[in-house]
Amino acid sequence: MRTTSVGVFRIATNGPGDVSGLLKLIESGKIDPKSILAILGKTEGNGGVNDFTREYAVSALCAALARYVGLPPDKIEQRIAFVMSGGTEGVLSPHITVFTRQRIVDRQAERISGKRLSIGMAHTRDFLPEELGRSAQIRETARAVATAMADANITDPQDVHFVQIKCPLLTSDRIEAASARGCGTVTNSAYSSMAYSRGASALGVAVALGEIEDKVSDEHVLRRFDLFSSVASTSAGIELMHNVVIVLGNSASSASPFEIAHAVMRDAIDSAAVIDALARVGLPIRSEPTAGRQLVNIFAKAEASPNGNVRGFRHTMLEDTDISATRHARAAVGGLISGLSGTGAIYVSGGAEHQGPAGGGPVAAIARLSIGED
């Protein structure tokens, strides 16, 4: 029996604090604010440790939604999962993607066949600074992924196509707090801690979905890059100390007019994988809707190949002291996917440690189906 319906709304933003597009859809009745489960966004910050556009965007959204859901702004994050990814280099366009979920009572939904888009959310407990990038983060993330899958009514790991995680990073204050307790952190660099946290979180996804058979421990993080998840997308930020987990997949319990599918890019120029992901949701390589289907958004990870070359040719992303490698990678992958999909309003996040093979990353596409299409 189909019990839920998931909605997806991509909304352009004029800045990190711009909530006008969301409020317009709420006021017009197209979005029920109480049905919002998660909001993923791209902001025009630098994506680094000091990127406060992420926190600013979340603060603006919480303040705007508070009066609609009957909660104070500081309680909104307990109800809605926010994942803001900084960095819109190149042709990438700042935007948010709003996911809603509602219970349904319409029996007409039973005429839908096949599995449709479903979403689930979970949080880990707060981590101690010394736990970031280590087994504790892997273990707790795996538990949260299982919880989010159950929340989405997804039982088969093969039906999971994208797992978005917002995870913490280390700051000087957090490192000092751990040291005062006699505990060492995985690194003393705030910037490096982003990679450790992203990597451990991704390995947690791989463990939860059975993508890794061997037991994973501290020494595997950022060392065994042959261990990875094909659907994990993790983003580190200063604004939290726990992991926010959002599972996106297809479920027979959903009556959503959307479907999701994924593929895995083996490097930053793997156009075939992007084409494959689009084809799996029935979309050709052009912007116009076909056969009643329309692209809603594409979500991807980007990373500079760690061996310093792409398909035998040297790149300088890792050696550029003016622009960080993650910014180079976001721009490159963003340009590739935008050209194939016909829009720059896509979600491309940098730093793909253990998220797809080294130098590559997962790419997932969501398409809207026409009403009544199977």
CATH structural class of the largest domain: Alpha Beta
Distance between the termini: 16 Å
**Could you say what the CATH topology of the largest domain is called?**
60s Ribosomal Protein L30, Chain: A
Q: Give the overall silhouette.
A: globular
Number of helical segments with 4 or more residues: 7
Number of domains: 3
Give me the Rg, rounded.
19 Å
Fourth CATH level, the homologous superfamily of the largest domain: Cyanuric acid hydrolase/Barbiturase, RU B
Total strand segments? 14
Structural class: alpha+beta
Order of helices and strands: EHEHEEEHEHHEEEHEEEHEE
Tell me the helix content: 25-40%
Task: Describe the protein's architecture and organization.
With 374 residues, the chain is of the alpha+beta class. It folds into 3 domains: 103 residues, 60s Ribosomal Protein L30, Chain: A (2-Layer Sandwich), CATH 3.30.1330.170; 128 residues, 60s Ribosomal Protein L30, Chain: A (2-Layer Sandwich), CATH 3.30.1330; 118 residues, Cyanuric acid hydrolase/Barbituras, RU C (60s Ribosomal Protein L30, Chain: A, 2-Layer Sandwich), CATH 3.30.1330. It is built from 7 helices and 14 strands. The strands form 4 sheets. The protein has a 4-stranded mixed beta sheet with strand order 1-4-2-3, with helices on one face. A 4-stranded mixed beta sheet has the order 5-8-6-7. It has a 4-stranded mixed beta sheet with strand order 9-14-10-13. The radius of gyration is 19 Å and the shape is globular. The two termini are 16 Å apart. The model has no long low-confidence stretch (mean pLDDT 93).
